[in-house]
Amino acid sequence: MHKKDLEDFIKRDRNHPSVFIWSVGNEIGEQWGDEKKGDTSGRDISKELVSIVKSLDTTRPVTTANNEVNKWNNLIQSGAFDLIGYNYNHDKWYRFRDDWPGKKLIVTESTSALETRGHYDPVPFDTIRRWPKRWDLAFENPNGGFTVSAYDHVSAPWGSTHEESIKALLKSDHVSGMYIWTGFDYLGEPTPYSWPARSSYFGIIDLAGFPKDVYYLYQSIFTAKPVLHIYPHWNWKRGDTVDIVGYYNNADEVELYLNAVSIGVQKKKDDDLHVKWRVPFIPGTLKAVSRKNGKPVLTKQITTASAPSKIILTPDRNLINADGKDLSFVKLTIVDKNGVMVPDANNLVQFTVTGAGFIAGVDSGSPISHESLKGTSHTALNGLALCILQSNGKAGNIKLTAEAVGLSSSTITINTITNEKKKGLEK
After folding, report:
1. 43 phi and psi angles, rounded to 5 deg
2. What would be the CATH architecture of the domain defined by 310-426?
């Protein structure tokens, strides 16, 4: 059956331009075997599987993802693979050419860093933690709320923080690419917590599609788009000392101001990927200005929020197709009386929809929420929630209202339109 399954897999996908590498295994037991007992089956199986792939497609390289990267790995020793895949082991990437002369490396899985979007432990940014201590050990609940600090300083024990992974990549020009575990949080495999957690904490983006802070780290390193992002929020207790972290590119330096008073200029040094200030908390506004050749590039600011006051709804599109399938993703933000997002607002929000559509889904990105993703209400996570609207197949308007106890409600209208009419408008 394995031959038929693999052939069907290749035939199904070989005409897709998005496929550029085939993989025939991930962290499988035959990496090890026992040579003393004559068990080198992984070598023979590797050769057979690669042969099947090559019989149907000679245009793409073939790899397998290995969490064992030492010399006794039977899959690598088979010599069958065009690319050697490493899972994790970021501290060994630099020596790959010495360990496997003449071979080519791709990082098939990396990082496994952990964050809850919008939550920050009051500990220094530089405090690196591996949760749990070992993959086979149960993990307690040190934060009390099944949270993980969104500073980039927590990873699973087999992995690394985002910065640790990126630094290893940038120092090893022989690494052909790196896949991150993971781009998005996902349901299942709750790590580092077990129940009531019901999703992973790995994502650069949370379950609702909201970016965590490290999203901007990747933008600052791997895009030409000007980036300046500072975090965390500025709602703390008097007497707290807070690490303010900044990601930036296309600039030489960043200056941070607290209530219009400069608290210093910071520049990246050596292999730094961020800048940082340690700031005693005083309510008000933090403003960061990035500069290049002495001239401002970008300005970003964070303001202390007061009590939750109202809801703001922001759709990604106000016009969708009336085809019964098209969607508008509506971001819900809980703000104070001045329009500042309240970073710890976790209000229960009720959604009401009338007109030519319905609610396709709701979420907040919380890894411990057991609320229905298909309901008409949801609890916000750290100031944000999501409501996805879907056309019912008829042209017209979709009216969405969001309400919460003690907050001013918000209503928006999404227009649904037939393709023919839309084309006419576009002309």
Report:
1. -70, -45
2. Sandwich (2.60)
Per-residue pLDDT tens over the stretch 54-88:
999 999 999 999 999 999 999 999 999 999 999 99
Q: What is the reported pTM?
A: 0.93
The vertex-182 CA angle with 176 and 185, nearest 5°, equals 165
Residues belonging to the active site: 27, 109
What class does CATH assign to 2-218? alpha beta
pLDDT tens for 204-262 read: 999 999 999 999 999 999 999 999 999 999 999 999 999 999 999 999 999 999 999 99
The topology (CATH level 3) of 223-303 is: Immunoglobulin-like (2.60.40)
What would you report as the CA-atom Rg of the chain, rounded to the nearest whole angstrom? Answer: 25
Give the residue range(s) of CATH 3.20.20.80 domains in the chain: 2-218
Strands of 357-363's sheet, edge to edge?
A: 310-315, 327-335, 384-391, 357-363
Judge contact between 160 and 90, C-beta under 8 A. Answer: yes
Burial class (CB in 10 A: 0-12, 13-18, 19+), 343: buried
